[in-house]
């Protein structure tokens, strides 16, 4: 049994820094899903050939260079108002919890009400 636990720990247990998203504003992988959707909609084929992919990647390179230039000049992507408000409420709750103003159970209950699709 000890060898099994050692194997599991050595091969499957990753450092918490690799998977923990606590403190990050982005809580989902929507950026990845959005890019995948962009790729599919721009190529417009179920089974693109290598040339279609190369042309797409050339266009993406130009797009990324434009975005980098915009960011380096201080511009940023506008955030959705609802998402910004939601994140602000979450940050306020975490701050109150870190300052010992609310208990962990209150934090979790409040977070569940904020992110719930349908309130009971």
**Tally of extended strands?**
0
Number of helices: 6
Low-confidence stretches: none
> What spatial form do the alpha-carbon principal axes imply?
extended
Q: SS-based structural class?
A: mainly alpha
In short:
The chain has helices spanning 2-11, 16-19, 30-43, 50-72, 81-98, 104-115. The protein is an all-alpha fold. Helix 5 (81-98) packs antiparallel against helix 6.
Features:
single chain; 120 residues; mainly alpha; 6 helices; 68% helix; MULE domain-containing protein
In words, what does this structure look like?
The chain is mainly α and 120 residues long. It has a domain at 79-120. 68% of the residues lie in helices and 0% in strands. It has 6 helices and no strands. It has helices at residues 2-11, 16-19, 30-43, 50-72, 81-98, 104-115. The longest helix is centred in the middle third of the chain and has 23 residues, at 50-72. The chain is extended. The N and C termini lie far apart (45 Å). The model has no long low-confidence stretch (mean pLDDT 86).
């Amino acid at each position: 049994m000890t060898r099994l636990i050692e194997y599991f720990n050595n091969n499957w247990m990753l450092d918490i820094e690799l998977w923990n998203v606590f403190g990050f504003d982005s809580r989902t992988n929507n950026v990845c899903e959005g890019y995948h959707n962009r790729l599919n909609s721009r190529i417009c084929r179920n089974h693109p050939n290598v040339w279609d992919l190369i042309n797409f990647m050339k266009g993406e390179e130009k797009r990324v260079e434009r975005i980098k230039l915009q960011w380096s000049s201080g511009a940023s992507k506008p955030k959705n108002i609802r998402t910004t408000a939601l994140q602000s409420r979450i940050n306020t709750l975490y701050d109150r919890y870190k300052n010992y103003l609310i208990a962990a159970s209150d934090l979790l209950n409040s977070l569940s009400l904020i992110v719930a699709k349908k309130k009971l």
